[in-house]
Amino acid sequence: MLQKNGDPYLYETSLKLFTRAAAVIPEGIYGHQNPAFVIPGASPYFADYAEGGHFWDVDGNEYIDFLCGYGPVILGHNHPEVENAVNRQMAKGSCFNHPGKLMVMLAEKLTSMIAMADWAIFAKNGSDVTTWAIRVAREYTGRKKIVMAKGAYHGAHSWCTAYPGGVLPEEKNNILTMNWNQIDTLERLAAIHRGKIAGLILTPYHHPTYTAQEMAANGFWEKVREICDRENILLILDDIRACFRLDVHGSHEVFGIKPDLICFAKAMANGHPISTAVGLNKYREAAEAVFFAGTFWFSPVPMAAALTTLNILETTDAISEMNRLGTRLKNGLEELGKQYDYRITVSGPPALPYMTFDDDPDLYHIQVFCREMISRGVFLHPHHNWFICAAHTDADIDHTLEAADDVFRIVQQELDA
Amino acid sequence: MLQKNGDPYLYETSLKLFTRAAAVIPEGIYGHQNPAFVIPGASPYFADYAEGGHFWDVDGNEYIDFLCGYGPVILGHNHPEVENAVNRQMAKGSCFNHPGKLMVMLAEKLTSMIAMADWAIFAKNGSDVTTWAIRVAREYTGRKKIVMAKGAYHGAHSWCTAYPGGVLPEEKNNILTMNWNQIDTLERLAAIHRGKIAGLILTPYHHPTYTAQEMAANGFWEKVREICDRENILLILDDIRACFRLDVHGSHEVFGIKPDLICFAKAMANGHPISTAVGLNKYREAAEAVFFAGTFWFSPVPMAAALTTLNILETTDAISEMNRLGTRLKNGLEELGKQYDYRITVSGPPALPYMTFDDDPDLYHIQVFCREMISRGVFLHPHHNWFICAAHTDADIDHTLEAADDVFRIVQQELDA
Questions:
Q1: Do A126 and A275 share a domain, yes or no?
Q2: Which residues of chain A have a CB within 8 Å of the CB of B46?
Q3: Which of B25, B27, B265 sits opposite A295 (nearest CB)?
Q4: What is the average per-residue pLDDT within B154-173?
């Protein structure tokens, strides 16, 4: 049962388990799931189970899951058709010396669904495919430099991570950065480093942490393509975050982007571990020259999940439903913000929305807002965009907006009284 | 039914499927499973299902699986207890915003099983943890250089891959190499680059491709430790290949190695995708400073598999059985080699054996040998070490040695008549 007006959630079991974790794991919980990235002490640290659009933490608290495992869960947790496909494959085995027929079927599926895709290649992590893509760009062009947007997340590898630990300057020397939407900077970099830039890697829209998401300005992508064509730079689209949530043919179709290579991961198998890159035939030879291997990459289990997930996305209204529910959430929050005299922005595509308070330099407002929403059974991340899944319901949005009505008032009392 | 004296295996379905694969996937099948790495045209390209110590290809041919998915399958395919644990967890969900209790339990298990381990950290690929380990060594020491053995495989990342495609010279500049067992080279490198070497990464024994495996010479590891202590170099043990196949406490216990960090993957979850690194407390702070994240890394599903696999390895005679069966295989092959007047070497630990013909510069002998063994239902890799699993039986070894008796004669007829 979701909490409505009862006592605030307690996280006792989470905190106890974290004490054990901290003894045997660096940071206790590391990476993007580090509790310090959410709200330390006032949100769950460990999950127990999940079903559809909800999850339960180890203290038994239930939440509407607006983070969806940071994206992978697109049809809802434990989707029966996906899990049946997974179980059928697992009964035949999950780890082989050779790929299975499903790998060929999945590559055929992707190349038929995605208009620009002549081929597909599979791995496990998003980082596996983004790093591989820049290596393909380097192999194809014989050039070293890569352009990326400031604040963009392309994985945890040394070339792109924002954190300095264990990174050599040499690993960053060939990485140039531009501000999102600043086509002038790209023009300037292209002129200064003419003949030296192998690839430009961008997300289909800007989804940084801590700040509002930003869509491309009119004409941005046409200009990007024009520069890439003129300078023989590969345009690599990192569509890992949005994946097939906006369009089963890829986010580039929504925004009119014409990439040379696209990286996908996250939601393509409804939570089962797989990533992929697709590309044009002209890059096939370069793709073949870059050695790419991982022990578990050809497991047919996540491939079975991916085939089923993509079929469902293609043949149901899941994507338009996520858009509709996200739009309801966006409009509802904006309306409530006005009622409480807050200027708030709900940015990004409605299926991957993120709310910020316009005047919130220390992030206290969004942190208190999310802390109180979480304590009312609505899991909203204060510093990272949210995710709608197809298992969310109008009742979930209703509950969320009712809770938000209380919570805007609490934020006001706590910070602006 | 395993083939004994019937017609040779046909690979028609494999070959047809490969034609489809080649249209939509670079190289059709890439990485270590590329058919060119085995025996193109004369071995299966695609697997269908597996059970225990056997697998079936898409043409319905049955094989004794002496490759075990290149290592991960240690208890046998579809091990009931492991798969039950996996299914129980999958019913609760597989992809969350937070880790589950199983992550803490697995870290506690590893740190209690492995004497030197004060902490553990989890990822998906072997490459994830080897690359992370060298970053930790760099962070801890403030130094850049890493020493590795020539011909060692530590993953597909740019710093360690043997293939030049898409690799910048900058990414190799800080990698120094030594020949396995050449302590003099290590001494020389330590003297030349004094104060600049962050880490030395080695496997517990040398398992290159194409050539015989090599065990450390007497005193090698003591000398390695002495040099690392004197020069403040971190000793990183890449135990990914052998993993817990030789000792549930880690291969370092077998060989008297005293590593600072150890990387494991492959067999720790009987084929489910997970890798781990463990280390000493003195490196915890450096470990915390190196950002490490992947979308699917905290999935409790492979952690459930790992906990069950490790428990079984601890409480049954699985490890000694693999050693016993591998020893029977080794002795039997050596005996047969003698009968046919071949000088052969079965190298490496018996549970991960590899056979080479001593006089086989073009590798024709081992290729013909494996081609004929594969065609008789014994999947042996001509260029990569083999793996025994706990589901193999004495009947499997009997069949293998009977087949080898035929096959040595065929090799003789075909190449040395």
A1: yes
A2: 98-101, 104
A3: B265
A4: 96
A281 contact residues in B (CB cutoff 8 A): none
Residues, chain A: 417
pLDDT tens string B230-265: 999 999 999 999 999 999 999 999 999 999 999 999
Give CA B286 to chain center in angstroms. Answer: 27
* Dist CA B392 CA B412 (whole Å): 29
Selected for mutation to probe chain A from B29, B95, B158, B160 (highest A CB count within 10 Å) is B95
pLDDT beyond 70 at A109: yes
Cα–Cα distance for residue pair B268/A400, rounded to 1 Å: 42
Are B299 and B328 in the same domain? no
B108 touches chain A (CB under 8 A): yes
Given a contact cutoff of 8 angstroms between Cβ atoms, the answer to whether B326 and B353 are in contact is: yes
Distance from CA of A271 to the nearest CA of B (A): 5
E strand map for B52-190 = 54-57, 62-65, 119-123, 145-149, 175-178
pLDDT per residue as tens digits for the range B209-220: 999 999 999 999
* AA identity, residue B312: I
pLDDT at position B123 is: 98
Q: What is the mean pLDDT of residues B112-141?
A: 98
Give chain B's mean pLDDT.
97
On whether any CB of chain A is under 8 Å from the CB of B41, the answer is no
* In contact, B131 and B123? CB cutoff 8 Å: no
Chain B residue closest in CA terms to A173: B170
pLDDT in tens, A11-57: 999 999 999 999 999 999 999 999 999 988 889 999 999 999 999 99
Give me the CATH number covering residue A383: 3.90.1150.10
pTM of the predicted structure, to 2 decimals: 0.97
| A377 belongs to a structural domain | yes
Q: Are residues B116 and B254 in the same domain?
A: yes
pLDDT digits (tens, 9 = 90+) for A373-400: 999 999 999 999 999 999 999 999 999 9
Chain A neighbors of B295, CB-CB under 8 A: 69-72, 125-126, 265-266, 273
Distance from CA of A214 to the nearest CA of B (A): 23
Q: Is A103 on the interface with B (CB under 8 A)?
A: yes
Residue-level pLDDT at B6: 58
**Residue A157 sits at the chain B interface (C-beta within 8 Å):** yes
**CATH code of residue B183:** 3.40.640.10
Distance CA A282, CA A219 (A): 26
Contact list, B120 vs chain A (CB under 8 Å): 24-25
